[in-house]
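Supplementary Note 3. Input sequence used for the single-chain structure prediction.
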Amino acid sequence: MIWNKAFGVFALLFTVNSVIDSFKRPSIPYNHYLNGVFRPVEKERTVEVEHEHYLLSKLSGTFSQIGSNPRNLGTKDAGYHWFDGDGMVHAALFNGTSFTYVNRWVETKRYKAELRWGKKMYLYFGELRGIHGMVEIMKWSMLQMLALVPGARGTANTAFLEWDGQHYALHEGDFPYSIYFDRKTNNIITKAQLEIPNVKSVTAHPKIDKKRDELYLYGYNNYDFVNGVFFHNVLNKNLEIIHQSNIPLINNGMIHDVAQTRNHLIIPDLPLKYDFNKIMENKLPLAFDNNGTSRFGTMHKDTKAVEWYYLEDDNVFIFHFTEHAFELHNSFVIYACVMDFLDMEDFVHLDNPEHKIRGNLRLQQIVLNKKTKKATIIKNDFIEKIPNFDDIEYNMDFPMTSKLNPKHIYCSIFNAKTGKIIGFTKTDISQFTEKSKSTCIFRLDSMYVNSEAQVVVIDGIEYLLCFTYDDDEQNSYVSLIQVSHTQIHSVRIPSVRIPPGFHSMYHE
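The predicted structure, written as discrete structure tokens, is reproduced below.
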């Protein structure tokens, strides 16, 4: 009887959807992330590249970037969001005077299911808007309830994790997928998904405590539109859970990254919230609350005790913290790329020349006062308005730590109107004051950087290793950038186009 009712509801939903489809859907006529340099690549490739570049010949490891590259797209007006696509890894496997370029999809459960069906099956985040979005949610819930589609959430398109010699591809709201870089066959192999008992999902930036030999896999409540919870999981080298705890939040929102000191995790509880009502306003359900509350929790790694510090004057959001978080006698001092506003719609409409990714995303210092329990944000005036970037609007993110001087932080500079990485900063945080000009700047001309770079040291000199693309020549490159001396060294990858991605990794 219950199945008859379920199928009845299922049939009704498809009928309603057909009626709705008879009307013109609210569509995006041109999607920035499906065209131009962002256009997904259609094939997996293996390309051998011989070169005579002295610096690149010193590399013997593997550089890889991960990003969104949908294999099966739905209708043109499906509302594809850049965060939606299947994960694809682009890698350069270095071997002295040659390297092998390889790109492979991460073969997630979702990817393999759509490969069998030969079409898009799963719901896009970008589709969660308007009455069509509501119907799609109901359809999808029914399909899952009836077990008509395989249970698969993530696309493994966001970041990497290296733990105990193993490598994983991660996604917001899913489990990591184990991947293997096979240098003998020049291949990237998806092995298996890591599943953890009593855990629904983890986010894309786990933390490793080398002193304790512990892995912190954490997540947040992304399925309940009311209550916010931070899920903290501690694993050992054998991937065995040694601790689990749930920490209540006042914001039901995204926690993409956390910071850590020697003895504490810093948990951002910030007002980027899931709001079901936004869907009926034809907006994405993840919205920034200007009138909300921003706070930071310090959780002791051993006792698990949590204390909260409140930001009084402003609300902020943080995608990425730096490795620089210190516990002093009277305070915690943290560095992060901070934005004062975030609208997910900004990532959709970059095709509009008048549109941009707002938020003034900048490297800033966060101070948590132990006595007052207040959080304060300190800005660097020079970073806030970099002189030779005054002709464009820009954001800063992807902070990286120098290997030669731990007080130096590299950040990528994004063009706010195109989403492309067009330069880097190198900042000495030991002189991080409002008047400080302790920042080196590198700006590219026609080239842009494809994703997060990685810091490498060659012959005692520090470089940023990355994939780049030349708009004028329409070629992709492997590049080494020396920020302090504004130098770039590149080797072309013939007949290859690498779309912009998210995070990267370099390992020997």
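The first helix runs from residue 2 to 21. The helical segments are 2-21, 54-57, 109-117, 130-145, 277-280, 381-384.
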